[in-house]
Amino acid sequence: MKTINTTRIDLNLLVVFEAIYTEGSVTRASSRLNLTQPAISHALARLRTLFDDPLFIRQGHAMVPTAMARSIIEPVATSLRMLDGTLSRAFTFDPGKAQRTIAIGLPGGDEATFLPALLRRVLTASCIDLVIVPFDRGQLESRLASGKMDMALDNPWSHSPNVLHQPIATERMVVMARRDHPEVDEGLDMETYLRQQHVLVTSSRQGATLLDAELNRLGMQRRIRLRCQDYLAASQIVAETDLIMTLPASRRPDRIGRAFDNRILAAPTELPLGENELYLYWHASADGDPANRWIREQLRLMFSDATTPGA
Questions:
Q1: Same structural domain, 63 and 124
Q2: CA distance linking residue 139 with residue 274, whole number of Å
Q3: pLDDT of residue 195
């Protein structure tokens, strides 16, 4: 690749590059940036000349990034986000006037349990729009760095220093079962728990959860008969079968179980990982962004209310 004189780069070209990469489409990029498609195409032509690389190859309706584009998206997106955060801090942030869209990555199945409480806070106090996106943990850091996600909720995992995090909830695990389940009752013991068939809410098609890995380490195993991606659907399945579900208390099992008259029981005292840790993650480049900070605070308050007795 030829040497690029950075002092002669039009910053707007990098904004266009990041938009095409994130949206995967010239049409969607033009809509996002409020520019005409010819303007986006002209900017892309200048970028291709600048980098001496096509950057994107059209496949059907999608613009697929080249190896060059994939290699530069993270530093470009990080730099743009840091600049945006710097400029944003130069002005007074007012959530009631801020026209922003914040993308939040949620673990599989958590929309029904988290969104109502979060929206009650965001809709009444701000003009910020939310986009909820699924994610693969292996791509979480790159998505945060590129801005495809502004923040994410997940269990503890190893990551680079560029990903900031804070614990947002430590919660006990509970068990949901239908009210007339023939075996499950108050005082659920480990033997009865392991004898049941289970429904697991997860975004992963296979692989052991932290709980199952710990059970296996202790020489125990539970039978997962169904994996699904939604707690509300799983609650209905529990109500109509003898399957039981283990879930963290922050997923508001009382609310999602109430619709189907399910019972919520304490998990067996011998259950490993009887408490579940949930963390909030965001990229260092977004740490000073006022809108990002404000949404993070709403999430923190939401979970604080969820763990307050009577909330």
A1: no
A2: 28
A3: 96
